Amino acid sequence: MSPADDRARYSRQVLFAGIGEEGQRRLAEARVAIVGCGALGSAQANALARAGVGFLRIVDRDFVEESNLQRQMLFDEADARDSLPKAVAAQRKLSLINSSVRVEGVVADLVPENAEALLSDCALVLDGTDNFETRWLINDVAVKHQRPWIYGAVVGSYGVTCPIVPGKTACFSCLLEPGAEWGVGETCDTVGVINPAVNWVAALQVSQALQLLVGSWSFEQARLQRGDLWSNQFHASPMPAPRADCRTCARRQFAYLEGKAQPQITLCGRNSVQIHERGRRLDLGQLRGRLAAHGEVRNNDYLLRLRVPPYELTVFADGRAIIHGTTDPSLARGLYARYIGA
Ligand SMILES: [Zn+2]
To answer: How far is the CA of 56 from the centre of ligand 1 (A)?
Structure first.
């Protein structure tokens, strides 16, 4: 797209005093990573692509399902029907929304082995995840490489968000005990979620992102914000400064990045278990042929699904698998060994 077209495209944003011509130029040069492209990640990616952020890397381990469509604004029925990985579906959709933005969809779980490579070459990281294990890992990489990241979480009608800017604000470890989980113990799989709560949190995250990217963010204005969009109760408190005794940002101990806290098998909600098998490249076409005798098999270029009631195995080309129908890790491991390989 030519510079003249860009002028028209972003005219309303450039008119806004907080951004202007210089801010728009900075957005075009910016690189942002979005970890998790479910409800929050979809809304963040949509907004940042439309705002003209030059490069977006979208990291997601999951695929689109029909139950996502109520709140995950980038996806449609065809994506769910084809079981497309969210990172792939998002990349396709965003290229239609703004063809001048470079979008890199990465179908992967963010883990200690890939986290620095996927995050450290970006100026900013947005939290679109649904679990604390990944957030602790993001915090380690962000603090180690001095990159801001913006925490966000939603469940039911309730949301919480804050910017974490290394050297300026408290980091995640300053705010929380190691391994602790913030907010509510419930998950979207048990109490549901409504889309205005998602879009409220994503809007606050994107606003912080724009301020950081154009250089107008200030510690004095930074807030930890909580809100309930059903009872209309909102609360904002100033972000604390870093703690002098913090194990992560003061003592620079990166336990999550060093993999000391990373289990091989994790529960990932929805009555399912994820098996983090890596470095096992699978030929999905060949696997399909082998599994056809065992149950109903479907595959696309990115994943294969085997239905063996009451279970369903979704296997990715890198060997990772999500076993639906159980929360028992040893049963899941057994099914994996039986159908995919020990
Ligand atoms: Zn800290």
So the answer is: 27
Ligand 1: distance of its center to the CA of 247 in Å? 7
What region, left, alpha or beta, does residue 76 occupy, with left being phi > 0 and alpha being psi -120 to 50 degrees? Answer: beta
Please state, in angstroms and rounded to a whole number, the distance separating the CA atoms of residues 200 and 161: 10
Name the residue type at position 308.
V
- Strand 149-155 relative to strand 124-127: parallel, antiparallel, unpaired? parallel
> Rounded to an integer, what distance in angstroms lies between the CA atom of residue 189 and that of residue 186?
8
CA angle, corner 122, sides to 116 and 128, nearest 5? 80
d(CA 342, CA 267): 20
Task: For residue 188, indicate whether it is catalytic.
Answer: yes
- Angle at the Cα of 307 from the Cα atoms of 301 and 310, rounded to 5 degrees: 150
Q: How far is the CA of 243 from the centre of ligand 1 (A)?
A: 6
**Please, what's the b/e burial string for 62-79 (b: 16 or more CB within 10 A of its CB; e: otherwise)?**
bbbeeebeebbbbbeeeb
Name, in order, each residue with C-beta under 8 angstroms of 189's C-beta and a sequence gap of 6 or more: 269, 270, 271
**One of 171, 188, 249, 268 is an active-site residue; which one?**
188
DSSP state at residue 91? H
Question: Which pLDDT belongs to residue 96?
Answer: 97
CB 322 within 8 A of CB 277: no
| Sequence-separated (6 or more) residues with CB below 8 Å from residue 66 | 77, 80
**Secondary structure element (H or E) that encloses residue 23, with its range:** helix 20-29
pLDDT value for 145 = 98
| E-state strands within 129-261 | 149-155, 158-164, 223-228, 233-238
Q: Is the dihedral of CA 226, 228, 234, 235 positive or negative?
A: negative
200 CA to middle of ligand 1, Å? 26
The rounded radius of gyration (Å) of the Cα atoms in the chain is 20
Q: Residue 90 in 3-state DSSP?
A: helix
Q: What is the mean pLDDT of each run of 10 residues along the chain (342 residues)?
A: 72 96 97 97 98 97 93 97 96 97 95 95 96 90 98 94 97 81 58 94 98 97 96 96 95 89 58 74 86 88 89 86 85 84 70
Q: How far is CA 194 from the centre of its chain?
A: 18
